[in-house]
Amino acid sequence: MLSIQNVSVTYPNETEKALSQLSFNIKQGEFVCILGRSGAGKSTFIRTLNGLQPVTEGSIHVKGANVRQLSEKETRKLRTGVGMIFQHFNLIPRLSVKQNVLTGRFGQKPAYQNFFGLFSKQELSLAEYYLKEVGLLNYAERRVEHLSGGQKQRVGIARAMMQEPFILLGDEPVASLDPNTSKNIFKLLTTLHEERGLTTVINVHDVDLAKKFSSRILGLKKGELVFDGQPNELTDAVYNEIY
Ligand SMILES: Nc1ncnc2c1ncn2[C@@H]1O[C@H](COP(=O)(O)OP(=O)(O)OP(=O)(O)O)[C@@H](O)[C@H]1O
Ligand SMILES: [Mg+2]
């Protein structure tokens, strides 16, 4: 599904690499958590996967295609299949829950159709389907700005699912939430993952969440991969190496 070969990223005017010689594969259906200290390169890595951050060396293949060699059109098409959830949710506060979820569909429409009311019946019922799945069907008509953080992230997840993604990425999606809400969000993510075999890659600071919910953990340190293993292999020694 994803093949990362000798990937390095150096930001303009920086001497140190933000990512250094990363090589590994991610298989269809894995639930990967990425751990690492602040500045380790977690966000940079996630951005390389959704094409927002070009790599300076190496290659990333997604479903067999080298992302560096795709045309603009092909890149756009690939991106519509990459769902993304964010620490600060990135919702449109004054729109309703349902409208926010529907915006997940924008990448798949020609620009002139990007107005509400132009969604098909199927899309409207798909939005309801995902709102039900994330437990927010009764909130469909509410403005997002009045929701709690956990509810906002559920909207973010439903919006990402509207893309019918082949991969779901998260850059610290629970960093602004309390421990119990964080756990519930991870439970929801594992449900989505298990029901569909959805490949999931999430940055997280909470080691316990990564150990409890992921199928594989990657540890980054100063841009290098220092751990790649199953949750039960993350011993105290490994923990100390990562942090
Ligand atoms: N736009 C940028 N320009 C220059 N340097 C950057 C940029 N973004 C990140 N960096 C640097 O790249 C390195 C990796 O940053 P990154 O944001 O990927 O880390 P992170 O693991 O996500 O950290 P955090 O846990 O704080 O979110 C850091 O040294 C950071 O200062
Ligand atoms: Mg980050």
Please provide a written account of the structure.
- This protein is α/β, with parallel strands linked by helices and 243 residues long.
- It has helices at residues 42-49, 72-80, 97-102, 121-133, 149-162, 179-196, 207-213, 236-242; strands at 2-9, 19-26, 31-35, 57-62, 65-66, 82-86, 167-171, 199-203, 216-221, 224-229.
- It has a six-stranded mixed β-sheet with strand order 6-7-8-3-9-10, with helices on both faces.
- A hairpin with a 2-residue loop joins β9 and β10.
- The radius of gyration is 18 Å and the shape is globular.
- The two termini are 29 Å apart.
- The model has no long low-confidence stretch (mean pLDDT 93).
Q: Strand fraction band? A: 15-25%
Tell how many strands the DSSP assignment holds. Answer: 10
> What is the end-to-end distance?
29 Å
Question: Mean of the pLDDT scores?
Answer: 93
Specify Rg, calculated over alpha carbons: 18 Å
Total of helices: 8
Physical arrangement of strands within the biggest beta sheet: 6-7-8-3-9-10
Described by the principal axes of the CA atoms, the overall outline is globular
Which molecules are bound besides the chains?
adenosine-5'-triphosphate, magnesium ion
Which stretches of 5+ consecutive residues score pLDDT under 50?
none
Largest sheet: 6 strands, mixed
**Into which percent range does the helicity of residues fall?**
25-40%
Order of helices and strands: EEEHEEHEHHHEHEHEEH
Look at the helices and sheets and give the structural class: alpha/beta
